[in-house]
């Protein structure tokens, strides 16, 4: 009896997991996934594109602002307030607020995603610069380095750990937010998750959600590890212990 | 609604149209239903805040005790910090989709998702805030005869409160933001007009976006004030300590320049 | 030896005043003094007296409100600040080594700015590391975090000396070091100064350090007024006013001990022995000594152990006989520090060694007590430091 029952259970199990029966019940179907996996690469690519572009532009802007605030301390407060306010506005809301101005498509998504990176990057870069030991800067100035030389040779290298920490956070946050980019018409994995139009079954199809969501999380994790590795390589002096 | 429901199709455009919808109800795009106006928008806002509040409160009830305990025994740093790193990486949409796909729709499920999203920042901040209380302070308290529970409650908690509040603030903002997509799981919120343009139109999407943005900013500002209110004066003085960095200029002297 | 040491220059403060806007009093008030070439001038005074401000005006880290500072006859305002600073060595209390650079890279900072060739830099770095008694091969690729406090301080000094500047500004450079190592570093610096003859402006709040290190001492009062500018011996015997008298301290007689060095006095002789020597011979050698004990030294003449009568009962001198011969007093130690060393181990005498660690004689409490009786003007002059 046992063998027969088991065989039947096994059969049922696989029946549920394969073929039309699985898909119809919106279940988790490995075979379906295997068949349709190629449909996810495009959106994944879009997702990566949106994330990296927003991160790059955001870093450029935040870096410029941070250097400005470094030279004129009083700017720190206002810039933090503005970027903070931009950050607080929920991404979905931001997409729609921008729509009348930038239209549907990548541009809106990128603009919104970029503004989200600003606060965290600006804050980390300024904090990093501010946490450079005062005596190292004083010694550098006393030795005859100009302000720009101090910035390039002493302050930025020593601020690097904090900056990279900020980049890590900004990266993972952007990956997460980019899943909502489809609201703005920017594509990405979010489209796969949510939209029936994408042809992958929408939000109720377990297989689809697992793959699309899983890819997003994987992207964030891999990127995070890469930046972390880069951090260890670029900062040899932090690897050595104390005397 | 006994008041008349005007059809304003085409009368305004863009932001003006959106503001109009906030303050005056109108005929829906698809017809037959009255949408907009302060009544409905207010109602949706309340629902939005309701689901957010429940999630944050539950998250606080779970995360703060755990964070306090871990921080007090000074263990579990990897867990406490990783939970935030991982939590940040999980897209809210994906999380919601997981729950919807595997557990179905409804208020409970949405609250569950939002709570899960709210826990990491609170947990990490509570842990870090508690952990940062100087060991000597804790040792002194122990020496005076306070029990472990009293130390946590009377020494570590007050000192960690600003950091904890910062975490609650971050969480609350994230939750209120994510509640915008709650309609995907059949829970009404301010996201409803955004996800149903066929009923509310472009004006509806924009209007909802504006209101959500304002509410989120208000929540952030409100909790910010609360955070400042719970910061003990002693700590506040510390963070405003005179700038020690010397500048190459005639300007105001740093404290060390007078020796 | 270091490559062509540049000749020292003089520094002149001419009515230098620093007034911060909004402050009731100036931080430095019409300071006028001249530091001779090759001299160490110590600025000393209580907190807020303007000593650090005065020093930092020399390299324009703080701008002069009125008056002028002349280095080698030229005003410091003549050149751009960055250019000026590259020709002045600068060492501060917290040292300020760059954590992200190796020791070699730290020391090479200014040479790189001046675009020296890689070879010349490398050579100079090794030379400097040796000068400060650190092994280049061991230390050049280490990061500051891997060094001890004393080592870091030394590297800071090496970095300040990198391009062989004629002028050195030092702001409590040994302040962050523990007292034992501080003494050692002070002695080493004085030995270095004997070789290099830099013109040094040295800031400290510690009057004892001022007396030990300075050729001339400038005592500043709050508000940046100069109370007295004189050589240590004169300041101790003829303080200019009540403030200086109080600042120098009631124990002026004892402080005079700081003006003498161990090498200035006649040390006691004792018989020495190495392991395996015939005891008979050792005893013979003890006939002439001032103490009834012998000193066991190693092959290079470095003291190891005291040998008492009971240790000299065998035929030959044994390796582990006797008691450890500690502490070891440096020939260049000031008498005050030597007294402190003796007191710390409750010993009446201790062996004295030179810069290489070779035995040079025995210092005893009696010698010190005798030295205390000497009148002030027979005290030391630091220019008599002989380099061996």
Report helical residue fraction of chain C: 25-40%
Main sheet: strands, sense, barrel of chain C:
6 strands, mixed
* Main pleated-sheet profile of chain B: 2 strands, antiparallel
Beta-strand fraction estimate of chain B: under 5%
Number of strands of chain C: 17
Number of helices of chain C: 15
Number of strands of chain B: 2
Helix content of chain B: over 70%
**Percentage of β-strand residues of chain C:** 15-25%
- Shape by Cα distribution of chain B: elongated
Strand order of the largest sheet of chain C: 6-7-8-3-9-10
**Radius of gyration based on Cα positions of chain C:** 24 Å
Mean pLDDT of chain B comes to 78
Number of helices of chain B: 10
Notes on the structure:
Helix content of chain A is 78%, strand content 0%. Chain A is built from eleven helices and no strands. The model of chain B is unreliable at 237-259 (pLDDT under 50). In chain C, the strands form four sheets. Chain C has a six-stranded mixed beta sheet, with helices on both faces. The radius of gyration of chain C is 24 Å and the shape is globular. At the A-B interface, helix 5, helix 6, helix 8, helix 9 and helix 10 of A face helix 3, helix 4, helix 7 and helix 9 of B.
Provide keyphrases for this structure:
heterotrimer, A: 243 residues, mainly alpha, 11 helices, B: mainly alpha, two-stranded antiparallel sheet, elongated, disordered C terminus
């Amino acid at each position: 009896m046992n063998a027969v029952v088991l065989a039947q259970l096994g059969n049922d199990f696989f029946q549920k997991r394969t073929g039309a029966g699985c898909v119809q019940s919106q279940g988790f179907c490995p075979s379906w996934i295997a068949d349709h996996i190629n449909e996810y690469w495009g959106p994944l690519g879009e997702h990566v594109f949106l994330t990296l572009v927003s991160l790059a532009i955001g870093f450029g802007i935040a870096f410029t602002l941070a250097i400005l605030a470094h030279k004129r301390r009083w700017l720190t407060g206002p810039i933090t307030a503005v970027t903070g306010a931009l950050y607080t506005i929920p991404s979905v809301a931001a997409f729609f607020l921008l729509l009348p101005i930038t239209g549907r498509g990548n541009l809106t998504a990128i603009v919104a995603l970029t503004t989200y990176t600003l606060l965290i990057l600006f804050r980390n870069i300024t904090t990093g610069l501010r946490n450079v030991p005062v005596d190292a800067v004083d010694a550098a100035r006393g030795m005859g380095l100009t302000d720009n030389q101090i910035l390039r040779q002493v302050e930025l290298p020593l601020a690097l750990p904090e900056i990279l920490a900020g980049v890590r956070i900004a990266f993972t946050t952007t990956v997460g937010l980019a899943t909502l980019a489809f609201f703005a018409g920017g594509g990405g994995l979010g489209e796969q998750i949510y939209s029936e139009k994408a042809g992958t079954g929408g939000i109720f199809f377990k297989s689809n959600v697992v793959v699309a969501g899983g890819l997003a999380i994987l992207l964030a994790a891999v990127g995070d590890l890469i930046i972390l590795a880069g951090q260890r390589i670029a900062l040899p002096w932090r690897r050595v212990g104390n005397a | 609604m006994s008041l008349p429901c005007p059809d304003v199709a085409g009368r305004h455009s863009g932001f003006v149209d959106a503001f109009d919808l906030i303050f005056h109800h109108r005929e829906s795009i698809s017809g037959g239903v009255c949408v907009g106006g302060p009544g409905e928008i207010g109602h949706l806002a309340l629902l939005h805040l309701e689901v957010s509040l429940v999630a944050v409160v539950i998250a606080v009830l779970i995360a703060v005790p755990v964070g306090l305990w871990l921080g007090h025994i000074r263990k579990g740093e990897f867990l406490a910090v990783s939970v935030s790193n991982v939590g940040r990486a999980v897209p809210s949409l994906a999380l919601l989709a997981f729950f919807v796909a595997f557990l179905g729709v409804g208020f409970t499920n949405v609250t569950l998702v939002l709570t899960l999203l709210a826990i990491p920042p609170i947990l990490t901040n509570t842990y870090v805030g508690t952990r940062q209380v100087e060991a000597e302070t804790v040792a002194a308290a122990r020496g005076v005869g306070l029990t472990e529970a009293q130390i946590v409650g009377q020494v570590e908690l007050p000192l960690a409160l600003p950091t904890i509040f910062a975490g609650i603030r971050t969480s609350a903002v994230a939750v209120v933001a994510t509640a915008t997509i709650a309609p995907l799981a059949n829970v009404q919120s301010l996201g409803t007009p955004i996800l149903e343009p066929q009923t509310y139109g472009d004006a509806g999407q924009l209007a909802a976006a504006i209101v959500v943005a304002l509410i989120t900013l208000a929540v952030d500002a409100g909790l910010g004030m609360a955070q400042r209110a719970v910061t003990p004066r002693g700590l506040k003085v510390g963070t405003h300590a005179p700038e020690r960095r010397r500048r190459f200029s005639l300007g105001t002297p740093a404290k060390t320049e007078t020796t | 030896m270091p490559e062509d040491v540049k000749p020292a220059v003089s520094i002149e403060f001419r009515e230098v005043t620093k007034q911060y806007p909004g402050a009731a009093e100036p931080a430095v008030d019409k300071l006028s003094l001249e530091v001779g070439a090759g001299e160490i001038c110590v600025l000393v005074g209580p907190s807020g007296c303007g000593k650090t401000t005065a020093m930092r005006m020399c390299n324009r880290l703080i701008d002069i409100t009125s008056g002028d500072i002349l280095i080698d006859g030229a005003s410091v305002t003549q050149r751009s600040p960055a250019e000026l600073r590259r020709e002045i060595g600068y060492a501060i209390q917290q040292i300020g080594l760059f954590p992200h650079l190796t020791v070699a890279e730290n020391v090479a900072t200014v040479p790189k700015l001046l675009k020296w060739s890689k070879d010349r830099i490398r050579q100079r770095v090794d030379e400097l590391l040796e000068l400060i008694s650190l092994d280049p091969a061991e230390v050049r690729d280490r990061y500051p975090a891997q060094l001890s406090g004393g080592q870091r301080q030394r590297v800071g000094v090496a970095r300040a000396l990198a391009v062989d500047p004629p002028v050195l500004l030092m702001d409590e450079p040994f302040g962050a070091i523990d007292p034992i190592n501080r003494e050692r570093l002070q002695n080493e610096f004085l030995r270095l100064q004997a070789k290099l003859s830099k013109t040094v402006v040295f800031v400290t709040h510690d009057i004892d350090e001022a007396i030990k290190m300075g050729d001339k001492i400038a005592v500043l009062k709050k508000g940046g007024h100069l109370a007295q500018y004189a050589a240590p011996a004169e300041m101790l015997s003829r303080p200019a006013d009540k403030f200086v008298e109080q600042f120098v301290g009631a124990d002026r007689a004892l402080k005079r001990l700081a003006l003498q060095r161990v090498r200035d006095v006649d040390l006691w002789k004792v018989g020495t022995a190495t392991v395996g020597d015939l005891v008979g011979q050792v005893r013979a050698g003890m006939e002439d000594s001032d103490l009834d004990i012998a000193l066991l030294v190693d092959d290079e003449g470095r003291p190891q152990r005291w040998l008492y009568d009971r240790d000299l009962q065998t035929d030959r001198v044994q390796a582990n006989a006797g008691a450890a011969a500690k502490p070891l007093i440096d020939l260049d130690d000031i008498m005050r520090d030597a007294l402190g060393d003796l007191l710390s181990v409750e010993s009446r005498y201790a062996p004295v060694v030179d810069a290489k660690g070779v035995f040079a004689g025995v210092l005893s409490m009696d010698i010190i007590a005798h030295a205390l009786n000497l009148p002030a003007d027979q005290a030391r002059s630091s220019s008599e430091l002989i380099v061996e």
